[in-house]
Amino acid sequence: MDLQLDSSGVEGYHSGTQIARVLTERWMKENMYCPHCGNPHISQFENNRPVADFYCPACRNEYELKSKNGNLGNKITDGAYETMIARITGNQNPDFLFMSYAKADCRVWNLILVPKHFFVPAVIERRKPLPPTAHRAGWVGCNILIGQIPQQGRISIVSNGCIADAAAVIRSVNASRRLETGDLNCRGWLMDVLNCINRLPQVFTLEEMYRFEEMLQHHHPDNHNIRPKIRQQLQLLRDRGFVEFLGNGSYRRLA
């Protein structure tokens, strides 16, 4: 994997956005393997395809690329809000690849994969509608709140210019698939409880988990049995290999 972006052949483009798209998409085609099956290359879909940018010719998994000059930060701009919500709730979204690059030296600095089953409506932020004077007046975009996705769903491929071992990446991706569920409500609970666990020491207690009761009630206002729900989610995460039950109300985070 060569982290240098090939800047040749972009002389005919005048828009910085277009140039960035050409450079980053070219880099993906030439350097990126499939994080699911390990196929050495991924292929690019035809332009303006509404759902994804790339796919693996071996396992057929699909990917959408979002790139940004500078640090990724905790949020990244995406397209239409309603379209994104429809994709998530309809389980039609691809996996996302989030890239940060340095424009000055044409180099990739960070690349993370977020598998599709980590997306819930809560991580999609609705932006303000465009003003009446705008070309697309009233259009509503969105931001993807990367920082609110559990760390188990932010799988690093390149970190601060260092390339992760491909085999380790593939193992992490395959491990994350144990969290797959088509039930959006169940997915939301799993993501929220994982985020709570990640804020605690590796070995934690049920009483420590109960400290998040008010926050979880705010996220799930229709549920009035938060503590039993916390225990249920811990059992699910135990069964899926993400926590270990140590006895006497104690747990260990495994992944």
Residue windows where pLDDT falls under 50 for at least 5 positions: none
Return the domain count: 2
What is the helix content? Answer: 25-40%
Average pLDDT confidence is 92
CATH class label of the largest domain? Alpha Beta
Radius of gyration: 20 Å
H/E element sequence: HEEEEHEEEEEEHHEHHHEE
Q: CATH homologous superfamily of the largest domain, by name?
A: Dam replacing family, catalytic PD-(D/E)XK domain
Tell me the fraction of residues in β-strands, as a range. 15-25%
Cα-to-Cα separation, first versus last residue: 26 Å
Number of helices in the DSSP assignment: 7
How many β-strands, per DSSP? 13
The major β-sheet equals: 7 strands, mixed
Q: Assign the CATH architecture of the largest domain.
A: 3-Layer(aba) Sandwich
Structural class: alpha+beta
Oligomer: single chain
Strands of the widest sheet, in order across it, are 1-2-3-5-6-9-10
Features:
255 residues; alpha+beta; Arc Repressor Mutant, subunit A; seven-stranded mixed sheet; three-stranded antiparallel sheet; 7 helices; 23% strand
Task: Give your account of this protein's structure.
There is one protein chain. With 255 residues, this protein is α+β, with helices and mostly antiparallel strands. It has 2 domains: 163 residues, PvuII Endonuclease, Chain A (3-Layer(aba) Sandwich), CATH 3.40.210; 70 residues, Winged helix-like DNA-binding domain superfamily/Winged helix DNA-binding domain (Arc Repressor Mutant, subunit A, Orthogonal Bundle). It is built from 7 helices and 13 strands. The strands form 3 sheets. It has a 7-stranded mixed beta sheet with strand order 1-2-3-5-6-9-10. Strands 4-8-7 form a 3-stranded antiparallel beta sheet. Strand 2 and strand 3 form a beta hairpin. Helix 4 packs across helix 7. The longest helix is centred in the first third of the chain and has 16 residues. The radius of gyration is 20 Å and the shape is globular.
